[in-house]
Structure formats: structure tokens, C-alpha cells
Amino acid sequence: MTVEGVRELIEEFEAEAARDRDSEETPEVGIVMGSDSDLDTMYGAYEALSELGFAEVTDLEDPPEARFTFETYVVSAHRTPKLMDAYASTASDRGLDVIIAGAGGKSADLPNMTASLAYPVPVIGVPVQEKSVSSVIGMPTGAPLTAVDAGKSFNAALSAVQILAREHEELRNRLVEYHEGLQGEVAAVSRDLHESGTPGFRAQRDQ
Amino acid sequence: MTVEGVRELIEEFEAEAARDRDSEETPEVGIVMGSDSDLDTMYGAYEALSELGFAEVTDLEDPPEARFTFETYVVSAHRTPKLMDAYASTASDRGLDVIIAGAGGKSADLPNMTASLAYPVPVIGVPVQEKSVSSVIGMPTGAPLTAVDAGKSFNAALSAVQILAREHEELRNRLVEYHEGLQGEVAAVSRDLHESGTPGFRAQRDQ
Amino acid sequence: MTVEGVRELIEEFEAEAARDRDSEETPEVGIVMGSDSDLDTMYGAYEALSELGFAEVTDLEDPPEARFTFETYVVSAHRTPKLMDAYASTASDRGLDVIIAGAGGKSADLPNMTASLAYPVPVIGVPVQEKSVSSVIGMPTGAPLTAVDAGKSFNAALSAVQILAREHEELRNRLVEYHEGLQGEVAAVSRDLHESGTPGFRAQRDQ
Amino acid sequence: MTVEGVRELIEEFEAEAARDRDSEETPEVGIVMGSDSDLDTMYGAYEALSELGFAEVTDLEDPPEARFTFETYVVSAHRTPKLMDAYASTASDRGLDVIIAGAGGKSADLPNMTASLAYPVPVIGVPVQEKSVSSVIGMPTGAPLTAVDAGKSFNAALSAVQILAREHEELRNRLVEYHEGLQGEVAAVSRDLHESGTPGFRAQRDQ
Amino acid sequence: MTVEGVRELIEEFEAEAARDRDSEETPEVGIVMGSDSDLDTMYGAYEALSELGFAEVTDLEDPPEARFTFETYVVSAHRTPKLMDAYASTASDRGLDVIIAGAGGKSADLPNMTASLAYPVPVIGVPVQEKSVSSVIGMPTGAPLTAVDAGKSFNAALSAVQILAREHEELRNRLVEYHEGLQGEVAAVSRDLHESGTPGFRAQRDQ
Amino acid sequence: MTVEGVRELIEEFEAEAARDRDSEETPEVGIVMGSDSDLDTMYGAYEALSELGFAEVTDLEDPPEARFTFETYVVSAHRTPKLMDAYASTASDRGLDVIIAGAGGKSADLPNMTASLAYPVPVIGVPVQEKSVSSVIGMPTGAPLTAVDAGKSFNAALSAVQILAREHEELRNRLVEYHEGLQGEVAAVSRDLHESGTPGFRAQRDQ
Amino acid sequence: MTVEGVRELIEEFEAEAARDRDSEETPEVGIVMGSDSDLDTMYGAYEALSELGFAEVTDLEDPPEARFTFETYVVSAHRTPKLMDAYASTASDRGLDVIIAGAGGKSADLPNMTASLAYPVPVIGVPVQEKSVSSVIGMPTGAPLTAVDAGKSFNAALSAVQILAREHEELRNRLVEYHEGLQGEVAAVSRDLHESGTPGFRAQRDQ
Amino acid sequence: MTVEGVRELIEEFEAEAARDRDSEETPEVGIVMGSDSDLDTMYGAYEALSELGFAEVTDLEDPPEARFTFETYVVSAHRTPKLMDAYASTASDRGLDVIIAGAGGKSADLPNMTASLAYPVPVIGVPVQEKSVSSVIGMPTGAPLTAVDAGKSFNAALSAVQILAREHEELRNRLVEYHEGLQGEVAAVSRDLHESGTPGFRAQRDQ
To answer: Binning pLDDT at 50, 70 and 90, where does residue C179 land?
Structure first.
């Protein structure tokens, strides 16, 4: 019952896994989601990776110049289980170092199944909705997956880069730089609120 | 305290049960809901059955030509308990093979009572709201009913057809065909997202 | 990474699917659960099927004499995803008419994945714990599965037999007989409570 | 499919409804519950009514001497829906003034259906378990039922007597007397705790 | 710390309690709510009582002609506890037969405290918001109050009239008549949906 | 309907309020709870106050020698509303500086009503059970009360002393001393766990 | 990794703590929140303090003339933990008597950590969202913090002033006056609703 | 207010951070928990790491011979915030590659604060109780932490090793070997259940 479009993707994953590309050529991070309706929520992962200097691979034969890259796919656990299997089972051989997997609904099985099939590649689950948290996080003993809070794909990407940063001082520095920017913003707004006073600050803000 | 309109419907159900129509003439699937305010949620069952080639019976004396048919009624457990009783108690004799029963609110008793009264005709409960799930699914041991998630009347209809498909190869084929269509859509969107890249895909989509 | 014990089971499922046994020889109902720690909860399905005259197949080459049979396996979605896939993907060809799939925990993916892979064979999900209900029932549109309440494997088996009873008058009769027994018990206890009075009834009961 | 034991009870309810007993001879309060496993929880209603001078009727031909009486039955919404219907539909004609209906589980339909069928006799619902509260209380607009908290059958009986007390000064006095007893106990324990001091009070209590 | 406006109302309640009006002159039903922001939710009680022929008393010296009447007040448990006390403590002497008390928020104490202070006058609690249900219903043993579901002030009024209907055949008849109207509506819509078919019915409705 | 025992306590509260004791003679902290069944949970407040050098007053005519004292009463919002009113309304005049009020159940009204009636004396609410948290904390705007977590009467007492410590350097010092003790314990156990290693630490502990 | 803006604020807090200003010159109340996106919710604290005659300090060298004052800062537990530490650790030495700390999200750690670091200065936690309540209130034994309900920063400020009012009769009077105003409003609206009748009151209101 | 025991630990962390040990000498994984009462839950992390060949460091001057090691400490966010700060702030300089942080209660701040202070060292949060999940997982955008389900410290350790395995083929192999063992167990129990039949399997098990 596997239709042609699905079969082609499966074959491409398997072909890529069979090649022996250098790890610098393959994407470090794989982003998968259960439906393109999850894309707006998963966009945070794109933003965080872009902010930290990663580029998206859309054609493995013509990869971006950036040293660190990621790829993005839609894979449905319940509608295309064989495609999910192929994506996850080939992940290690395709050179992925960490996978960010997002799914919505109450039966958000994609992150869990991806973690089981891609093991021991680490998978960070992103519950796309609040009601997905329980299903994503609840893995039984022996089946590792870590999760971020509902909708926090941005943080999932930061966590993915924290994992990679252990080997790449450059990524560690980018993480620190990003964080210092955040801290500076808090300090600025704190001083501004205190010195303008509550009504003054609100007036400015609402201008 | 049974008013005339209710009494007439009860009599029609009983008259139909007393007739001995050929099973090909009677609807395979019965759809009931607690209120016409549930209709937009229950419309998914109509859509799924229509997609799989079922036609709606509105006049048993003048049935549609389609081989597989269904009927639709409003029956309120709390306002018209006697009508509910008549609908469900006559279901088997009226030729129904499976019932899809939807109800909203916290006391969504219609699917449960229908399952008890129509037994052993299988009943698939559709909680019309999230808060109805618990009441619909919570049947005691010995009183069977299966349920879909809140609002998933479309899936309830697929499940009903899965039940019928055991006898009807034709329905099995329609289910497979429908599913292949779904898979093809996932494959297409997955390839598109991957090859367009995240911003490109979003740009196309939002055009 | 598939170990030998798993590989052997997969091969057996595939070999069985390749054979062309008569449908009377193969089990009608398949029971799967995520772990043998679920067995006490899933035992209700065994009890209900036994009560309705089904026998358990433990060796397909030496099947029980009973007309209706079932089989039982442990299959873990998260620890043995390839085994789960083989079990469910071969279900139709192995002659199963309906599957009862139970899983515990918050990420109770086994019923969902089984439903997706065995499609269009109907799957009845049994949440083994209260916290599994949400994950079992929450399937997205297009991916049908029906569920019973937490722990209600007995009812899942009744529902499975309701599905089979459409073709087998004999099963319909057994269901009715079982139900009449239940009703008789309620009537007896009701009369007893009423006629003994509350303290009298309790005294008898606690003797 | 109605078995003999159920049919007999139904006939007795109908016969009693057809008689025209004086209202002093019939029980004021009817207690029904979905299963005899609910009896320990529903026992509070028995206790409260007994405390307020009501006697339990176990044989209508040989009623207790007490002016105020009640009756107790088991009636299952899901296993014996026709018995439930007969019980509730005849309630008014059998002389009941108020019904206390208890049920457990998530689909605690008995109080709701009883309220619909016995209307306009007031029904007080008792959720036998915490998880039954939502199903008992959630009646739609137009279908009245009032509920007490999970397990509070004692309070349901007090509420039933509050309803009856409007006509019967004697019951009003018993309610007041009962309440004064409660207040006296609080006052005594409050004084004792204060004057003994916390450790002293605990020491006495644990003696 | 009791301000003048509050003191005046308290004095009026006490003066009215001290009078000895005939029960036909005093309102049967008292409606109280914690804030005028609850009025839109509590309006259902007004509607139901009006539908059943009750009139609102706004001036006890110039009561409406209707045989059955009710009164409406705002009383805040947390902002005006002394006013609440006076309202409830005088309820019985002011001739009220039943009180409908609504409150919102998580600490919806008004119905509970009113029930304690007006005892043994029956109080029906209306949780104005979903989050108020738990606080309204959760009375301890010995302190009776019955509740309707969140926002169901309409049903609370029907329940109040069910209580009154025991003495007043006229009210019983109005309740039955109201219910027959409801049933007729269900029957009409059910027939219409069935005979028009789902798309036809929706088309008409959306015209 | 106020019984003698209650009336006597009310009179004693009022008499004490009318006296003009020096603030050093009256208890700083009042502990009230809805039932003596709450005492084991509320015992934490006794422990914390005792640890910080407070003594319990059991006879105002013969107060303890300690500079800082507290009193303990049982007061039920739903069974003895007039006693609760008297306790709280006289609190300020009886010299209480802060009240710790604990109640269990879902309708945990005692802390809320005490806060409203004792205002502006600060009240710290202790939900005696998890299900009491929502009812205790949910006060409307304008009606202040602060709460601790379910069962945390010990913390409520620390918070009460934090309030008093602003005026009494001595109490501030005791709070700091208590806290340093806690910190020392954490440091000791941390060092012990680290240096013994996990199995060694557990072995010691389980000896 | 502490950036300059943060370091400057830390140094200012420490410098201020090292000075020895008279307690009349320093703000009594400190308001902190985790993000300026919390400001609209925390604005209630500003409103309540302003209503009770407090002025906001925006420059310690040029304080407002009002006797009672407060200050406002943004401090993020998760983005600027060192800034939070400095704010809270210096609170006592900077003369703050009570802190109102608000935070949103599920990990609303700011109030908790502030309470631990500012100890024994009392901290009132404000959960900025409903989902923050659990995290704010759940402090372990020995680590005191009291909380108000989600969003109730207005009440937090009233509670803070209740704490201060023990020393300042003037504040006690302002609290009473504020409360009398509230009571007067309830009395006025109650009379108006009663005398206008429900439809009349609504008509006026909606004019 | 930092007591001596705490101060000594802080100094040791700082001294260790100032040294420049080779990364092979320092522990790869740090385990911290909020209280020694969490140790039984956190013991799973010890078990998993031990199973994968890690040894616990109890004395840095006398490290175990194993190539991969971990350390264990108790650090309380609410009772010893300065100790927590020192532990986390020095983590990177002390050579830790990943931290597993567990905490119980509703305000489980330790994992969150550790993640903020140890950044960019990755932190895996372990909610020690179900009620801790929400507080652990709910980090705001920009503050990364990933979490496992309540009590799943075993999985947290597997995830930590997945992170380390990217650099260490040896660890990758151990992970695979561990997983194959798990799979073999599932296959064995599945075959056993199937071939023994349900009652046979249970009989063996219960022997």
C-alpha cells in the first residue's frame, strides 16, 4: 500500500544512507514534523538555527556553503508510517547528529517513534500543542527521548546546538554571544522601566 | 408525556422494524446526534461516507441507487429519552449494521445509551466536544462501545466502513484508495518543503 | 540493529502472511500489548473471548478445534519498532479480522501505530492506564482507530466480537446470551437489595 | 432481549403505578444506584434518612410504621436500560417525591437518564466517584438535575429532606435539630483544642 | 466597618423577616449572585422563571399580581460578608422557599455560605464559570447544597420549580408543558434533518 | 439556631475584643482550621512557631511567659458560620497580628471568609488537601488573601513570622538562624553523597 | 558571561545596599517581574499601591515626596540569573520591606528564587498566567513564599500593604477606607438590581 | 547568610574550576538533585550510567580508572541558592559535558536554574514527581533545557550518553549493545506468551 511518492522518498533516503559522504557535507540537524500545518510552530527551530549560522540544505548535491547545516521534512507517523521508518532508520547513516521532531494532537507519536528508530541518534521532541506534551514526553524506560515545552521549537534548536557545541568551539561561541544579547535586552528594559516609572514606560511602549 | 411529533417518529421506527426489507435496501450506517447544533461537527461522518461512495437515505420508499447508504437523525437522550430508546431498540431490525452516535456536553449520554439499547449492533461514539470524551468513553465492563477522539466524526465513519469492509471487498478497496491518496499528499508536501526550503515553502503557501 | 529473536519472529509473521491458509484456520482476533506487564490488564480480553467461545491459538500448525480463535503477542512500539511493523503489516494477510492493541504509559503509541500499519484491518485500542487514554484516542483525521476506556480490555473483546457477529449469527447469539446473563444478575441483586433492605443486604453480603 | 427477572420488576413497577395508594403509604424518597458495588458509598443516604426518622420500605404491602419512608433499588443504565426506564417513568405515579440516584465511573448516566425519565420529579445525582462528577452534573439546558459532590450521598439525603420539609414542619424541625447537634460538636472540639493546646489535644485523641 | 448602604439593606432584610406576611405575598424564589458581572449568566434563571409564569418582585409593598414570584439581589461573600449573612439568615423568615445562588471565580463561596446560613431552606448553587464548579459543589458532609453545571442557571430555576411543584399542581403542569414543547422541537428537527438530508438541512439552516 | 456551645465561644471572643489588653499579652498569631481532622496537617504551623520560640496560649488569664504566642481554634465555615464570623470579626480587637487559616475539601471557604471578615488583618490560607488549593487561592480582586501550597502549614507559619519580623529584630534573627540550620543540613548531605558515592550513601542510609 | 548592562545594574544594587539610607527614604515595596510582557498583568499592583497613596521611586537620589513608595524592575530568572540574585540578595539592605514578584509560563521560578534569596524579607508571588500558579505556589517546606491567584497583582499589593499596616496606622486606615468604598458599590448595585428588576437593570446598564 | 558547610563546597567548586585538569580526568556527567529524598528516583541515572560502563567519581584526586565518569551532588534551589549557583556556574570549567538535574514538588526550579547558570552546557531535567513535569519543562524561549518524563532518570542518563556518543564510538557501541539486549527480551517474552498461551504464561510467571 505504499504509493509512488512515498516510495521515491524512501529510496532517496536509502540511497543517501548507502553513500559515504564526509560528515562535513551532510546536515548536522534534521527537522521533521508530522504535517505542514505544524510548520509555523516548528519555524522557531529554523529561526534559531539561522540565527546561529546554520543553513538549510535543500539539495544534497548542491549544499550551502555554511559549515553547519540542517534539513527539513514532513513525515506522518499515522498516515505514512513506512516513510517515517525510512527517515529515522537511515538518519545515522545519512550523517545526522541530532533530530528535532515535532508533532501535534494528543497522539503525537512522531517524536517517539523517530527516537526509537533513529537510536542512538539523539532526538529532541517538540510537542506542537499543549495537548501533545504528555504523549511526546512519556517514553518508557529504555527508550530515550528528551523534550521541550509545547511549541518551543526555538529552544529545541538551541538544545541541539548545545549538543553539537561540545565538539565545535565555534558553535559554543555563537551560543554565548546569542545569550549575551538576550541578557543585554533584559538589562535595558529593566533600567528603562525603573527609570521611566510604570506609567511612563507603558506610555512609551504604546506610542 | 410523549408529544405527537415524538410519537410519530417512534411509530415509524417500529413500523420499519416490523417490515422485513432486504438488507441491501436498508442503510448500513446510522448517524445520530443529540442536537442539530452538533451537525457541523458530525458533518465529518457525512463527508467520509460520501467520499467512500455511500449515499444518504432520506426516504426509505425511494432509496438512493448507491449500494451502500446511511441515514441521519437527531435524538436527544435527555430531552427525548423515549425517542432515543425507539431509535436504538429498533436499529437491528431496521437493518443498521453499525451506528455512529455523537453528543456534546459533559453528560454525553447518547452514545452510551444507544450502545446499550442497540446491542449487539456496534456503536462508535463521537464526543462532540473535548469535555465529552470522558463521558462517552467511560462505559462499565460488559457494556461495549468504542470511541474516537473529540470531533473526529470523519474517523468514526472510516472505522464504520472498516467494519463493513470485512464482508465487502469493494469497501476495502475504497478504503485503501482513500489512504493512498492521503499518503501521496504527505509525500508531495514533504518533497516540496525539503526542496523549497522553509522560507520558500512558506512564501509559496502564503501567496 | 535487529537482534536474532526479533528477526525470527518477523520472519515467521512474513512466512505466515505468504501462506494462503483458509480463513477458518487463522485466528479472527489478534491481541497485542506493549509489555508483559500489561498482561493482567489485557487479561480481560482473554476472559471475554473465552466466555464467548473463542480459543487461543498457540501453534498455527496445531490449531484449537474451536471455530473462532485468537492469538496473543507482546510487541513494543518503542523497544522493537520493526517487530511492531511486521506484526501489523502482515495482519491482514495472516487472516486477522480485528486487532485489540493495548499499551500503557503516556506515550501509548502501539495501538496507534498498529492501526496505521494494519489498515484497513480495524484496531481497537486499550489504554492500559488512565494516563494512556489521551495518547491512544487522539488519532488525526484520516487515521482511524477506536478506543475503549482505560483498562477495559473486556469491553474491547466484546466490541471485536460485535464486529465479527455481523457475519456470524452464532456469535450474535452468544453476545445476546452473555448480555441476558448480565441483566439477570442486575435484576436479582436489585430485588434482593429492595426486599432485604439496606442493612439486611449488607449483612448478607459481608457474611 | 429483556430477561425474565428484569421483566418481573418492570411489571411490578407498572402495577404499583397503576394502583392509587394514598401518598402517606408510598415512600417519599427513592434511592437508586447503578450497581450494588455503589452501596457502600450510597449508604450515607441510608444513614441520613434513618437519622432523620425515615424508615426503609421493603414490602409495600407491609410498610413500616414511620410516617416518612424510602425505598432502595439497583438499576443499571447500561446493562438494564429498560429497567431504568420503567423505574423512572413510573416514579411519579408510584408516589415518589424525590429521587436520589447514584452512579460511578466516567459514564455515570443513571442520574441523568433518571432525571429525564422521571421528570418533573426532582432528582439529586450522587457521583459515586470523583471521575463521575462531570458526567453527573453536565446536563444540557432544559433537562434539570442537581448534584452533590462525589460520594456525598449523606448530603443528598439532607437535600431531599430539605425539599420535603417545606410541607412537613416535622421534618424541618428534625433538620434543625440535626444541625444543632453538629454545631455543638464543633464548639466542643474547638474549646477542647484551644484549652488543651495542640500537643495536649493530640495526646488525648491518640490515647 | 459596615458602610451605610450595606447597613440599610441589612436593616431592610431584618425588618422584612420580623413582619409576618402571608406566604402568598412573599417571593418563593430568591436569586442572589456575587457580582452584577454574573448577571448575564444568571439571566437564565430569570428566563426560566418568567417562562414558567413567575414575576419578579421589585417592591414588596407593591408586589406583582402573579401567584408565584422571585426576587434578585447582588451579595458578595468576600466584599460584603455581613450583607450575605443578613440575606441568608433572614431568608426563611422572609418567606423564601428556595434560593438560587450563583458565583464565579475559583473561590465561589457565596452559594456555600448561603446554604449554611439559610439552612434548612434549600439552596441550588450555580457555578458562574467552569472553574467555579469545584468550589460550589464541594460541601462537606452535613452541609447540604445541590448544584447545577457551570452557567446552567436556567436549569437551576427549573429545579427550583420542581421543588415548588410538589405543593402546586399548577407549577407541575407548567413544567410538563414546557417539556413537551422541548420534545416537539427535537422531533421536528430530527424529521427535518432526516428528510432533507444533511446537505439540504444545512443549506436551509444557513439561508 | 445557634446552640449554646457556639454562643459561649462567640461571647468569649466578643468579651475579649472589648477588653483592652496590652499587645504583648495577646497572641500574635491565630491558627484556625475547619475541623479537628485538619489538625495533623496544620500541626506544621505549631511546629514552626514552636521552633521559632512561640508558645501556645490556652488560657488568656494565664498566658505563657514567652514574648511571642499563638492560639488555636476549630471553626467551621459551613457548620458554624456564626462562630467563624465572630472569630474573624473580633480578631483585630483581640490583638491578633496575622491569622493562619486552614481548610480541606473542594469548598475550602474558611480561609477566604476569615480574610474577608478579619480584614485588614492579614490572613495566610493553608489548603489542607491538594483539591483545596484552587478554592483557597481564588479570591476576587479587592479581597486580599495569600496562600501557601497544599499542606504547607509549616511554611505558612514561617511567612507569618516574616511579617512579624519587620518589627521584631529578635524574630528576624530566629528566622535567619533556622535557615542557616537548613543550609548546613543540605551542605552536609551533599558532601556525604558525593564522597560516599551513590551506593555507599544509600547503604548508610538504609542501615 | 555577564554582559555590561546587567553588570551595571548589579553594581547599582550593591552600591545601594552598602549605603545606609534611612528607612523612610527607601521604597517599602519592590515589584519585580520576569519580563516586560508581564507588565500589563502586574499593573494591578501599581494601581493598588497608587490608590493607597504610594508613589513610585524612579530615582533614589530624587525620591517622591510621598511617605510610602515602591520601585519596579524587570529581572529574568532564566535569562539573567545573576541579576535576579543581586536584586533579591540586596533587597533587605536596600530597605525593602516586602517584595511582589510576578512571573508567567509554567516554570515561573522568579518569585520562588527571589523568596529564597531575599529571605527573610517576605515575598508575595503573582502567577502571571493560570499555568504559572502551580510553579509559584509549590515551595518546599522551609522555603516560605505566599501567593495570590493568577493575575491578581492588585490583591498582592493589598496584601503587601496589610503587612506594612501593622506598623503604620495610616495605612490601616487607607485599607479600611478602600474597603468601605467597595462595600458601598456592592450595596448600591444590589439595591439597584433589586429595585429596577432584572430587565430594567440590564437595560440601564446596556444604554 | 551563607553557612560554613555551604561556603566550603562553593570554594571547592571554584577551586576545581580554576584548575586546568585534562578533560579525561574530569567527570563527563554531573548528577544533581534538590534533596536526598530524590535519590531513589534519581538512582535510575546511576544504574544506566553504571550499565554503560561509567564510574562514579567520589574524590577527584583519586579518580576511578574507568574512561567515563560522573559525579553526584545534592543542591537545593530554594534552601541553598548560592550553592546551586556555584555548582552550575562552574560546571563548564570543571569539565562537565552534560548535567542531569532532578527535582520534585511543583516548584521544581533546580533543573531550570541549573540550565540557565551552566549554559551552554546542556542540562537534562528530571521531574522527580508527576507534579514536577510542568515546572521542569516550561522554560521560556531563549533558555534551553530538555526534559524526560517524571521519574525517568534512567532515560535521562541514556540521553546524556547519546550526547557523548557522538564523539566516542565506544559509547555508541555500548548504547547499541544495551538496546539489543532490550529487544531480545521483548522477543523472548513475546514468543513465550504466544506459545504458552495466556493462562500458561501467567501460571509460569506466578510460580
So the answer is: very high
Instruction: Say whether both H76 and H176 belong to one domain.
Output: no
| pLDDT of residue F1 exceeding 60 | no
CATH number, domain at B44? Answer: 3.40.50.1970
Q: What is the DSSP letter of C177?
A: H
The minimal CB distance from F5 to the residues D184, D196, D205 is found for: D184
Spatial separation of the C-alpha atoms in residues G121 and G92, rounded to whole Å: 6
Query: For residue D134, how many C-alpha atoms fall within 13 Å in the half-sphere facing its CB?
Result: 18
* Structural domain span for residue F81: 4-167
Contact at CB, F77 and E106, closer than 8 angstroms? no
Give the chains touching E; criterion: ≥3 Cβ pairs < 8 Å.
Answer: B, D, F, G
Q: Which one-letter DSSP state was computed for residue H1?
A: -
- Do the chains contact at B139 and C133, CB–CB below 8 Å? no
The model's pLDDT over A72-112, given as tens digits with 9 standing for 90+, comes to: 999 999 999 999 999 999 999 999 999 999 999 999 999 99
Give the closest residue to E124 by CA, choosing from E136, E140, E135, E106: E136
- The answer to whether B1 contacts chain D (CB < 8 Å) is yes
Instruction: Judge if E107 and E181 occupy the same domain.
Output: no
Q: What is the DSSP string of E41-104?
A: HHHHHHHHHHHTT-EE-S-TTS--SSSSEEEEEE--TTT-HHHHHHHHHTTTTTT-SEEEEEE-
Dihedral (CA of A149, A155, A161, A165) sign: negative
Using a CB–CB cutoff of 8 Å, tell me whether E63 touches chain F. Answer: no
Q: Which amino acid, one-letter code, is at B143?
A: A
Q: Is residue C179 located within the same domain as residue C203? A: yes
Per-residue pLDDT reduced to its tens digit, A153-193: 999 999 999 999 988 999 999 999 999 999 999 999 999 99
Q: Touching check for C205 and chain D: CB below 8 Å?
A: yes
CA nearest to A88, candidates A103, A102, A104, A75: A75
Low-confidence ranges of chain G (pLDDT < 70): 1
DSSP helix/strand/coil, G11: helix
Let me know: does F111 contact F136? Beta carbons within 8 Å. yes
Nearest to C46 among H188, H194, H198 (CB): H198
Task: List, for residues E72-82, the tens digit of each pLDDT value.
Answer: 999 999 999 99
Helix (H, G, I), strand (E, B) or coil at C171: helix
**Predicted confidence (pLDDT) per residue in H56-87, tens digit:** 999 989 999 999 999 999 999 999 999 999 99
| Residue ranges in chain E modelled with pLDDT below 70 | 1
Contact H158, A140 (CB under 8 A): no
Count of domains for chain F: 2
Least CA distance to G127: which residue of chain F? F137
Looking at residue E156, its pLDDT comes to 98
Is residue H91 domain-shared with residue H136, that is, in the same domain?
yes
Q: Of the candidates E49, E46, E28, which has an alpha carbon nearest to the alpha carbon of residue E167? A: E28
Provide the 3-class DSSP secondary structure of residue C23. coil
Contact across the interface for C162 and B138, Cβ inside 8 Å: no
- Co-location of H185 and H90 in the same domain: no
Give the max Cα distance, chain D.
67
Q: Are residues B113 and B46 in the same domain?
A: yes
Q: Given CB atoms, is H116 within the 8 Å cutoff of chain F?
A: no
- Say if residue B152 is in the same domain as residue B177: no
Check if the beta carbon of residue F152 is closer than 8 Å to that of residue G145.
no
- Can you list the pairs that H54-62 forms with residues at least 24 positions away whose Cβ atoms lie under 8 Å? H54/H28, H54/H29, H54/H161, H56/F197, H56/F198, H57/H27, H58/F194, H58/F195, H58/F196, H58/F197, H58/F200, H59/F195, H60/H16, H60/H21, H60/H25, H60/H26
F152 to chain D, closest Cα gap in Å: 17
Q: Are the beta carbons of E156 and E129 closer than 8 angstroms? A: no
Task: Verify that G97 and G184 share a domain, yes or no.
Answer: no
In this structure, what are the phi and psi dihedrals at residue F196, rounded to the nearest 5 degrees? -85, -20
Per the CB < 8 A criterion, the answer to whether C107 and C78 are in contact is yes
